[in-house]
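Lecture notes, part 5. Sequence design as translation. It can be helpful to think of inverse folding as translation between two languages: the language of shapes and the language of residues. The source text, in structure tokens, appears below.
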């Protein structure tokens, strides 16, 4: 059973507002902290958003445009991405917290007009 699975990627026009979702199975979902990361070819995987049971933290590049929320009863987190920019393209991974034990397989977000 895949511990974490992302959904919602695809090709989006600049300015679009896709929402990514991630569902965790069993112990691969942390109520204390879950996170979204992004990776582009040739670059390291960078964190985008971390959501705890009380707070949500964003990297500066997405602050004010991305919104993270969670639905613990379904072991799910979401990343609403508003005003999407070309620089937001990449593979998005959900993971358990800031030092992840579990990773999803990633979902590709392509931004093009």
């Amino acid at each position: 059973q895949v511990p974490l699975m992302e959904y919602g990627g695809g090709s989006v026009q600049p300015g679009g507002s896709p929402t990514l979702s991630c569902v965790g199975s069993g112990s691969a979902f942390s109520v204390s902290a879950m996170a979204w990361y992004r990776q582009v070819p040739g670059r390291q995987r960078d964190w985008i958003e971390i959501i705890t049971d009380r707070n949500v933290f964003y990297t500066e590049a997405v602050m004010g445009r991305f919104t993270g929320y969670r639905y613990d009863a379904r072991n799910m987190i979401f990343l609403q991405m508003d005003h999407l920019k070309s620089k937001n393209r990449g593979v998005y991974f959900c993971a358990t917290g800031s030092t992840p034990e579990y990773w999803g397989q990633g979902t590709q977000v392509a931004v093009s007009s």
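The translated text above is only one of many valid answers, since several sequences can fold into similar shapes. The chain is about 0% helix and 45% strand.
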